[in-house]
Structure formats: C-alpha cells, structure tokens
Specification:
By secondary structure, the protein is mostly helical. The chain is 77% helix and 0% strand.
C-alpha cells in the first residue's frame, strides 16, 4: 500500500509540474500531504514535514547567501575587467573567439544563473559573430556547454537539489566530483576550439571586429561598480571557494560571512545595501521557497516509509545485474533525462527512489546523486524545453530550438560521458 501511494505521489508530482498545472511549490507540499492522509497519517505529517524542512535548512541558507554574494560582486563590476580583457584577446580569430566565449560563459555562470549568463555573454559576443559571419548556432552551443557544465558547482541548482533530496551536505556530494568537473570544463574548451577551427575555415577576418571589441571594452563603468576594490573582491571569491572545497567551515556560514564582507566593503551606505539586497532577493527567495517545499515532500515520503516501500518493491523487479550498476546507469541517462524531467520533479521525485534502491543492492546513494548531477539539468539544462533559460538562449541568438538541440545535445552528452568516465576511473562512481 505504501509503495503504491509513494508511486502515486511521484507520478502526480511529475504530471502537475511538467504539465504546468500548478507551481512546483504547491505540488511539492500539496501532493505528499494528500497521499500521506490517504495512507492514514494525520498529526504525524506535521512531524515529517518539520523534520524534512530542518534537514535542508542549511542548504537553503547557503543558496540564499551565495546568490546575494555573487550578485553583489557582479553589481560591483568585479568581472568587468576580465570580460573586457577576454574580448580583446578574442580579436578577430574565430578559434580564439569560441574559446573566449566558453571562458566568458564559465566566468559569468559563477552566480549559478543561466539567465544572467546568457544575458551577459550573448549580447557581448553576438556582434563579433555577426561581423565575422560566424554561425550563431556555434555561439549558442558554446555558451550552452560552458554554462551547463558550470551548473554542477556546489551552489548550482541541481547540486543543491540533489544534496537536499539525499539529505547530505552539499560538499560531501560535490567534492569527489571536483576532478571530473575540471576535466569536463577542459573538454568544453577543447570542443570550443574545434568549433572555432571549423568556423575559421569558412570566414575571413575583418577590421571592424577589433573596433567593436575595443568599443565594448571602453564603455563607461556603471555607478555601482567599484574598480578600486577589484582585487579585494577577486580575493574574496577565491577564498570563499577554497574554504568551501576544503571544508574548513560549513558552506552556509562561508557564504553568509562572504556576503556581509562583500556588501560592507563595496556598499557601506545603508540605503544602497538595501537596494542591492532587494535586487537579488527575488531569485534567492524563489529557490529557497522551492527547497523548503521540497523538504516537506522528502520529509513525508521518508518519514511515512513510502520511499523505503518503493525501493523494496523495486528490488523485486530490478535484475541484480542492473541494480548493481544503478549509479552508472543513472549517469548515462542523466543528460537525456533533462528533456523529460524538470529539475524539481527529477531530484525531489526520482532521485530519492533511485538512491534508496541502490542501497538495497549494496550500492551508494551518494554515487547515484553524483552521477545524476553530471547531466540532469546541468549539461542538459540549456537544451531542455522545460527551462525558461533555454528559450532565453535561443531568443538572444536567434537560433531555432530544433537546430540548437541537434547541434548541442550530442556535444553535451559527450561532456557528460567524459566526466562520468573520469569519475569511474578515479573511483568516485563505482561500476
């Protein structure tokens, strides 16, 4: 009975969210409460929900302050000199332009927002591509690969969701993937170079390109930018990421401290501080709300025993030769799964079941989570029709969705396969 109700809970979540009948927040709370009542639980649901919320509270806090931290440094113009320098380096050589495109997208995606990455990167580089006659599909593909791979970072949406669903610290989930992700980013740069070589074979250089690049670099700084604090801000980013990866302090405390240092140094005026917080509060609050709602969802499914019951039922039908390799199978299916599942329904509905099922076959739920974030709404998010960022990307570049997917999906899957292979070779994911 519990297994059937658990399956019903996940299916209802998938249908309601993917069909956009209700918001993810409503579905994540209402659906498990309804099936929990059908299972005969009443006041116990309050305990399950509270325990679920408590289990993800620190993750939600980390995400809120990570958004505020990187948003504040973006406002302060921390990345502007780097962007300008990269554009100058690009010059009028298509191979350099595509590599710079990837580097720029990686840099801007430090804040974890696909929309911001596309809004900053594409308008800055589109004139270069058009002037040289380079294909816009190359721009869309390169930016998508870079942003998608960077989305695996500890403060990225998929990684935070996976850590929340599995109820583990985000660093415990991500740190073993540091080398595979680094190799993945290098793979993106290699792909960008190859795409650039192909573009160079079909276009010729133009003097106008250099002039446009210089013009961009010489645009006046915004009133919010703090060029005198550039190196202080960069050092703050490096220190925060180093502390995070080294595990010297809890992630939420690292970003809390980093944020208050950043906003105090750059904007000591109280009124300006409030304005900067307000400017980024919407994105932070939306994701935090989803995380807390997900806490209710996973809390009820785990507290009621539905997840365990579904896993035990799955064991009876999954052949041992499949169950023993569930993490690897998840890694292979993760990127294509981005075309079928939005991040909330996959990470909060499917991943806990996969993780628990893996443990029944003496596997590791953490390995399943790591395999999932190597593709599901990471390399896969900029090609998925289930994310608004994809339509922003193709809208800014003027590329049709079908054409973008045909060119990008095979390469995105290749990047996932490279990272998965490295993860297997170093023992992060078991065969």
């Amino acid at each position: 009975m519990l297994a059937l109700l658990g399956l019903l809970t996940i299916l209802l979540l998938l249908v309601l969210v993917m069909a956009r009948l209700v918001s993810p927040i409503v579905a994540l709370i209402a659906v498990p409460v309804g099936t929990g009542l059908l299972a005969g639980f009443t006041s116990e649901l309050l305990t399950f929900m509270t325990e679920g919320i408590q289990s993800i509270a620190t993750t939600a806090v980390m995400f809120i302050f990570a958004i505020l931290f990187f948003g504040t440094l973006m406002d302060a113009g921390t990345f502007r000199p780097i962007i300008s320098r990269l554009l100058k380096i690009a010059g009028h050589d298509p191979t350099r332009i595509t590599v710079v495109t990837a580097l720029l997208a990686m840099l801007v995606h430090l804040d974890g927002s696909g929309a911001v990455t596309f809004l900053v990167t594409i308008p800055a580089l589109l004139p270069l591509y058009d002037t040289l006659g380079m294909r816009r599909t190359t721009l869309a593909t390169t930016v998508a690969l870079a942003a998608g791979t960077m989305n695996i970072l500890p403060w990225g949406g998929p990684t935070i969701r996976a850590a929340t669903a599995l109820e583990v610290p985000v660093t415990q989930l991500f740190n073993p993937l540091l080398i595979p992700v680094a190799v993945g980013l290098l793979t993106v740069l290699v792909i960008a170079y190859v795409l650039g070589v192909k573009e160079r074979a079909r276009v010729k250089a133009s003097e106008q390109v250099t002039m446009e690049t210089d013009a961009y670099a010489e645009q006046p700084a915004h009133v919010l930018e703090r060029p005198r604090l550039l190196w202080v801000n960069l050092l703050l980013i490096v220190a925060s990421v180093a502390f995070l990866i080294a595990g010297l302090a809890p992630p939420h405390l690292i970003f809390m401290v980093a944020f208050i240092v950043a906003i105090t140094l750059n904007y000591p005026n109280l009124k300006v501080q409030r304005e900067r917080i307000d400017a980024h509060a919407k994105a932070a609050l939306l994701m935090a709300s989803i995380l807390f709602a997900a806490g209710c969802f996973t809390g009820i499914l785990k507290g009621s025993g539905m997840i365990t019951a579904m896993a035990e039922a799955s064991v009876a039908y999954i052949p041992p030769q499949v169950g023993n390799h569930l993490a690897l199978i998840t890694g292979l299916a993760a990127m294509p799964a981005s075309l079928l599942f939005d991040p909330d329904s996959f990470y909060f509905g499917i991943l806990p079941l996969l993780g628990t099922t893996a443990t029944h076959f003496q596997g590791d739920a953490l390995e399943v989570g790591r395999a999932a974030i190597l593709g599901q709404m990471t390399t896969g998010f900029p090609v998925s029709p289930l994310t608004g960022a994809t339509f922003l990307l193709i809208g800014l570049t003027g590329v049709e969705l079908g054409e973008h997917q045909r060119r990008t999906i095979p390469l995105a899957f290749l990047v996932t396969l490279v990272m998965l292979t490295v993860a297997v070779l170093i023992g992060t994911i078991s065969l």
